[in-house]
């Protein structure tokens, strides 16, 4: 595990593979950490410099108390700049996927290929129940992440959908199929709004890369090689 200082504090990340290989940055789901990507990191390092970030409030990264998709997007920009990543592949799951969407909309020239795991931009439908102010049991992340992000999920910025057409990177959205709690039609709609976007399904539920890693990797590696 490596550490880097950004404006919000110290951030932890996993880095593996050769520095001369094309970089790919991985962003995890809410309540998870970079360790969630272990089922696929080793196999990606065959061809890529793999960088998995603990997002703010998660894992061994700082817990500043302020959380939003926009703040996490801006963390990613600062992180990429400090690592000298002018252009890179970006893959995100859930919280990390929404952050990736916002990044690719704002700075489209920085992304080579974009992979979104079972996540469209939030639409607010249906609304998620607001979590309690305090966690019902100990958690491994900063609980205000949940309360502040769920508030955004229930009242999303319409620009997140409206700006999908600004994404210029080839984009693959992988849906979890009928076992996922997310509306798969929204995933297909999001892909249709992105120039060069495509949608595929792996019947695995929301956590595709950990439930069906072989199928997930096959889809991702083939896409990145195009």
Question: Please, could you describe this protein's structure?
Answer:
This protein is of the alpha/beta class. The chain has a single domain (about 1-225), classed as 3-Layer(aba) Sandwich (Rossmann fold), CATH 3.40.50. It is about 35% helix and about 20% strand. It has helices spanning about 40-45, 70-80, 95-105, 145-155, 160, 185-195, 210, 215-225, and strands at about 1-5, 10-15, 25, 50-55, 90-95, 110-115, 170-175, 195-200. It has an 8-stranded mixed β-sheet, sandwiched between helices. α3 (about 95-105) links the parallel β5 (about 90-95) and β6. α1 (about 40-45) runs parallel beside α8 and α2 packs across α3. The radius of gyration is 16 Å and the shape is globular.
Q: Roughly what percent helix?
A: 25-40%
List unreliable stretches of 5+ residues: none
User: Roughly how many Å apart are the termini?
Assistant: 31 Å
Query: What is the fold-level CATH name, i.e. the topology?
Result: Rossmann fold
In terms of structural class, how would the helical and strand content be classed? alpha/beta
- Which range does the strand content fall in? 15-25%
Question: If you compute it from the alpha carbons, what radius of gyration comes out, rounded to the nearest whole angstrom?
Answer: 16 Å
Tally of contiguous helical segments = 8
Q: Biggest sheet, strands in spatial order?
A: 1-2-4-3-5-6-7-8
Level-2 CATH architecture: 3-Layer(aba) Sandwich
Q: What about the largest sheet?
A: 8 strands, mixed
Average pLDDT metric? 96
How many beta-strand runs? 8
What is the quaternary state of this protein? single chain
Assigned CATH superfamily: Alpha/Beta hydrolase fold, catalytic domain
């Amino acid at each position: 595990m490596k550490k880097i200082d950004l404006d919000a504090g110290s951030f932890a990340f996993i880095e593996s593979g050769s520095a001369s290989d094309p970089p790919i940055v991985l962003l995890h789901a809410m309540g998870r950490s970079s360790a969630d990507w272990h089922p696929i990191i080793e196999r990606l390092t065959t061809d890529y410099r793999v960088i998995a970030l603990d997002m703010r409030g998660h894992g061994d990264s700082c817990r500043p108390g302020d959380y939003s998709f926009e703040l996490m997007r801006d963390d990613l920009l600062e992180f990429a700049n400090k690592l000298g990543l002018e252009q890179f592949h970006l893959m995100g799951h859930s919280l990390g996927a929404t952050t990736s969407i916002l990044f690719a909309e704002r700075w489209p020239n920085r992304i080579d290929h974009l992979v979104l795991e079972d996540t469209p931009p939030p639409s607010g439908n249906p609304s998620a129940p607001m979590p309690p102010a305090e966690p019902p049991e100990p958690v491994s992340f900063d609980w205000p992440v949940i309360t502040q992000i769920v508030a955004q999920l229930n009242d999303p910025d319409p620009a997140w959908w409206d700006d999908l057409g600004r994404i210029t990177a080839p984009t693959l959205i992988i849906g979890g199929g009928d076992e996922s709690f997310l509306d798969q039609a929204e995933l297909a709609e999001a892909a249709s709004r992105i120039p060069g976007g495509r949608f595929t399904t792996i019947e695995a539920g929301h956590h595709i890369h950990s439930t069906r890693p072989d199928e997930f990797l096959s889809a991702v590696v083939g896409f990145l090689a195009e």
